[in-house]
Fold each of these.
Amino acid sequence: MIPINRRDFLRGAGGALLSLPWFESLGKLAPAKLPKSRLAYFYVPIGVVRRSFFPGEAKAMVPKGNQGDKMASLFVPSIKPGIHNLDLTPTMKPLEPVKDKITLLTGLDRPFQHGTDVHAQCASCFLSSAAPYSVETSAYPLDRTLDHIIADNIASETPFRTLEFSCNSHKDNKESIFFDNMSWYGTGHVAPSIRDPRKMYNRLFGAQEIQNFRNITDLVLEDAHTLNRNLGYNDQQKFAEYFDSIRTIEEQIDKLDRMKGELDKTPMPQPTGAYLPRGEYIRLMGDLMVVALQTGLTRVATFMVGPERWDTPFTYDSLFDKPMSHHYMSHNQTEHVEDLERLDRFHMEQYFYLVQKMDRIVESDGTTLLDNTLFTYGSGLGDGSTHQYHDLPIIVAGSGRGTFRTGHHYHSPEATPLANLWLTQARAMGLKMDRFADSSGTLS
């Protein structure tokens, strides 16, 4: 048998590919290299309810209506700058099982260009962090985003430089591309995200016109059985788990397609996407992202949970009895604050699902995929009603192969740029950069 490494594939008829994770048995034939570091972003739109997310703000006021961009006087953190014990607030409680592998970062501010739309600058400028008015050709401080700058330096060994995931299933074009994309090749040049799980699946596994064939796991099954006979017992179990996870993804895609097909036949007051179960959809897209990172298809991924200021509602599994608009609720917090807190926790549960999944995938040196990843949860607003763009909710899961100290809460001094975190992460990924966007240094 010829040597094989983590970038090899099982290939079936019809152009289908199944990328492989690392297996110890095959490493004996071709010594495995140490795992590479990965970078991924989990973006949540429209901020959070501060009193339930931020330590020390349990008694913070609930804003009344749309407060515009009134900021600092409404929320004054009681936490002093420095490193603190990590106390999980109600919104962060789902992360308890992985508490020692996350870092809460508060006190970070993003740049804001006055005179233009607040929401349009959230996701679109989140990974750009260009100084206000520094980009003359844009109404927003939007430049080449961090994911592509890092990919410029590390993507030579992966089939995909970056992957862009979006969980916005709507097609009613409520807002412009600035509200629904966080990854940009440069000012005015969006890196379009893939919203359809089947399209992402086909892109990852090279299955052109897959509907004309059997599914991918069927296509490569014979080669898989041959490979499996060459694996040790532990690797056979790992292979079975991996193969089953791909099969489960296929089944979930088929399930959602059938559900969408039935909804398309039924007259509804809202677009079809409003009635698809959010949890299943987000987790399915997340499973695809984890597979891509696990198998080395890419080392850099962005993942948008939903669009900014898009009033078309979604069905949030078990939370509400009808589709609800996140943006509408954020501007009516006095009426919907408890609903918003449940929604924030719902999003955190989806993040935890992916963090835990990554932490269960063992790599060639005994570490986990999570250990070798910087997986950042964040939003471009600190609060959706006040539109504040300082003191953003940021969590980093994983240590990036030990470059981040985890299990604590780090509160930055006042006016610390969000770009300081991005510069720190860029260096952790091996880039030799002195500055990124409006950064003033790295995080200690």
Note: The first strand starts at residue 9 and ends at 11.
Amino acid sequence: MLGRTRSAARRLPCGILCVLVLSVLAPMTAAQAQMAAGGAPRIDESRLVAAMKAADFAGTLLIAQGDRIVFERAYGPAEPGVTAPHRLGRIWRWASVTKQITATLAMQEVAAGRLDLDQPIARYLPRSRAPHADILTPRMLMQHVSGLRHADDFTPKDNDGWPYFYTAPLGSPETGVTWCEGPTGKPDKVPPADFRYGDCDFIMMGAVLEAITGKTYAALVKERIARPLGLRTVGMFPKTPSKLSRSAVRGFEGGKPESRAFHLANFGPAGALFGTTHDLLAFDRALMSGKLVPPAQRAVMWSGQPRYGYAALGQWSYDTALKGCEGAGVHLVERRGHIGGVSLRNIILPELDMVVIMTWNRGSAEEAFGEVWQQAGLTHDVLAAALCKAS
């Protein structure tokens, strides 16, 4: 069975190449302008089905405009070699989409005047042992130009190739802030260093937030995000699995269950959140509407920097073209998540008031998802089917 439907009436690794291929784009087409004004998109479902078949997709797809879900479907079997299909409404690990939530919490503190993006983190963590804590800023952390350690550089890989940072008991010296603040093992670069994506940046950002507020990161997510928005499935993977966390969709790699060596709790403010796609949509809608972050601070958070491959703060933000949308471009705020055998794409189209969320549990999906700016791959084809005429 290809899928089951319920319809209603989350890095961009492009670097300098992305800078070269992205350009100033023409205004929206009349059809896109109508959508931006509140009209429902005319989704080409046959093209969506073809794209999912071509990718051998196993997961879920949700497309929403405004507060309405206009397309939602589960595809493929839940596990390799079984007949039980994927179901809508399951809990998924959000992986690095967690960084988008962490950035949102940070911008709330900016809006309240308690956090300055360009002050050194030593102002908030006076005892920090991080290299150049007297220069390193929250903005640098959230744009991955901190120069901090990377888990796969300095911890031995064992247990199916996972760095010890993710397999050691949470709270040990080989995990969390303690490890991230350690020496890099090579000459330190004065930040801002070269762009390099890593979890330590957002683990440190979480520590800054905890220092400012006097609350744990988990408590901040609950009080600032989950409770106000009524998100009943959102939580952090704990040291000891809970009933809710155990119900999350399992990942598979190479047709086999993913490694059990890593601990999802070790990802902390960089990747430890989970929830349903409906709760993620509710977060996106609150972010888009200004309910979570005022427009001025959201604009800063969504300002993609060409010199860093259009990285913004905790997400990527860029303009690109789609096949079939002749003479028009689309602006994307994109957040990707991937841990073990589970991947997720959270895509916000602010100018069209739309959200696209895709989940997948068959290992690394980078090749299948492709790059929108290259006009190739599953993500591009889904967006084109939702927004453009068939070419």
Note: Residues 3-387 form a domain with the Beta-lactamase fold (CATH 3.40.710.10).
